[in-house]
Amino acid sequence: MPLLHPLRPDHAPALLAFERENRAFFATTVPDRGDDYFAHFAARHRALLAEQAAGDCHFHLLLDDAGAVLGRVNLVDVADGAAELGYRIAERATGRGLATRAVQAVCGLAARDYGLTALRAATTLDNPASQRVLTRAGFTTTGGTTLDGRPGLTYHRPLTDLLT
């Protein structure tokens, strides 16, 4: 089983490779990051590490045994005991339950290590795989939304059950 690791400075090359290799795949379900993201990746990576050091976000990479990135699972906008969950799994790693296990693992980290009591998430209606991952990880639908002009759903996951 691949393991989650908090984002570190030395992850930059593998993370950039992951984002480049999966750019077209990700664009089928989430907005493309744009060329600027890749052109200024090093500065962006440093900024993410600074946000993490400040406690505003918690970034995680799902790494295989060789250190290749299979996915990202992030908690952003940490405030008032809650955060927004976001994740991406490499195209070559989909369909094996990795996303569900990684999201479940981050839920546990959020409760036990980061002291959070709830998580929020959202996905588009045309991404049923993401909807299944969130449901399997204990999230419930809270309403509708629009994500970059596409209809979507919002989700909520209390974390109190993970503290027992």
From TrEMBL:
<dbReference type="InterPro" id="IPR051531">
    <property type="entry name" value="N-acetyltransferase"/>
</dbReference>
<dbReference type="Pfam" id="PF13302">
    <property type="entry name" value="Acetyltransf_3"/>
</dbReference>
<protein>
    <submittedName>
        <fullName>GNAT family N-acetyltransferase</fullName>
    </submittedName>
</protein>
<dbReference type="InterPro" id="IPR016181">
    <property type="entry name" value="Acyl_CoA_acyltransferase"/>
</dbReference>
<dbReference type="InterPro" id="IPR000182">
    <property type="entry name" value="GNAT_dom"/>
</dbReference>
<keyword id="KW-0808">Transferase</keyword>
<keyword id="KW-0012">Acyltransferase</keyword>
<comment type="similarity">
    <text>Belongs to the acetyltransferase family. RimJ subfamily.</text>
</comment>
<feature type="domain" description="N-acetyltransferase">
    <location>
        <begin position="2"/>
        <end position="160"/>
    </location>
</feature>
